[in-house]
Amino acid sequence: MDRRILAILAFTAACSSGAEHNANAAAKTDSAGGNVTSTAVAGPAGGTSSAGYTGTERGTLDQNLTGRIPVLEYHVIDGDKNSLYTRTVASYKADLDTAYKLGYRPITIAQMLDKDFRDVPPGMSPVVFVYDDASPSQFRYVEKDGKLEIDPTSGMGIWLDFAKSHPGWKNRGTYCLLNGAAAGHNFFGDNPKFDGQKKEWRFQKVKWLADNGFELCDHTLWHMKLSQYPDAAVQEQIMRNAMGIDSAVPGYKIRTMALPYGLWPKNRQLAWQGSWKDPKTGQEHSYNFQAVLEVAGGPTRSPYDPQFNPKSINRVQAVGDDIARTLTQLTTSKTRMVPRGKDQVAQ
Ligand SMILES: [Zn+2]
């Protein structure tokens, strides 16, 4: 119990004060410079349709299978000032807008692993939006006339609103969940004191994500610093969160996990593969993920790059102008991953 409380305190402190090592890691991604003009690559409908892709949008970029893919990392979407763990609604909207205008279209980590680029129009590039820590700011309900609605001012509400006015912007993104952390970081809020969210809404939100095109990812039960615990505790922490996700979406196959604070367990492999015996039932439960997300490092390698390592996928944190700069820099340096039509076929 003591261990748990300590970890919760550490988690809360890190998330509110900003962890320096993370900030330093993020700084490595700021390699763009000079005057850069944004170029809209989304063109009018026309040209030959790629097999598997049914949309009318087209981009103008040349194929670049081994280019980089930006995997963006968000935490809290709220407040009136940007910080390491907080993105204002205005900045979040601006990020979506920048990605759209530059001809990036969202996919999930699972799609990236499968080289499934059918949601990316020809001549455009994939981008992955990842949301860590399951705070109410990312996905909030409001009760209206006895019915639950997604709060239009929450991250999900903003996303859905954006999609309505931006053709081709699909519901694709990866949510790295916690289901037992402090301060409402429990499947998007477990108490009215956290943005009015009720405990009984939690599973419904997680199920909604899975049913609507988003990917569910394991981020441990209460954001454990995996490097500081014995193997058994690491496995329990990851497995119990996976079991929580399974309770919300029975049978869901989790393929991605995100390391809290980017810290690896002493036994690295336990991040993606392990098991835990539930003392209550005596039953053994096991997990086996294909992807592990780091906390920073810049745009990640493409699955076509021989050096692509799905067990160490780099990300770009939503800090300052890093996202806009990264998306623009990949464009001007012609290092964006651009799939070919063939890959847009379902596999
Ligand atoms: Zn986290």
Question: Would you write up a description of this structure?
Answer:
With 347 residues, this protein is α/β, with parallel strands linked by helices. It has one domain: TIM Barrel (Alpha-Beta Barrel). It has eight helices and 14 strands. Strands 1, 4, 5, 8, 9, 10, 13 and 14 form an eight-stranded parallel β-sheet that branches. A hairpin with a 6-residue loop joins strand 11 and strand 12. The model is unreliable at 1-51 (pLDDT under 50). It binds zinc ion.
How do you describe this structure in short?
The protein is an alpha/beta fold. The chain has eight helices and 14 strands.
Pick out its properties.
two-stranded parallel sheet; alpha/beta; binds zinc ion; globular; 347 residues; disordered N terminus; TIM Barrel; 14 strands; single chain; 8-stranded parallel β-sheet; 18% strand; 8 helices
Rg on CA atoms, Å:
20 Å
Ligand roster: zinc ion
Helix percentage range: 25-40%
- Helical run tally: 8
How many strand segments? 14
Q: Give the total of domains.
A: 1
- Cα distance spanning the termini: 46 Å
Topology overview:
Layout: H1 2-17, H2 20-27, E1 71-74, E2 76-77, E3 86-87, H3 89-101, E4 104-107, H4 109-113, E5 125-132, E6 141-144, E7 147-150, H5 155-165, E8 174-177, H6 202-211, E9 215-218, H7 231-248, E10 256-258, E11 273-277, E12 284-288, E13 291-297, E14 313-317, H8 322-332
Helix pairs in contact: 3-5
This protein binds zinc ion.
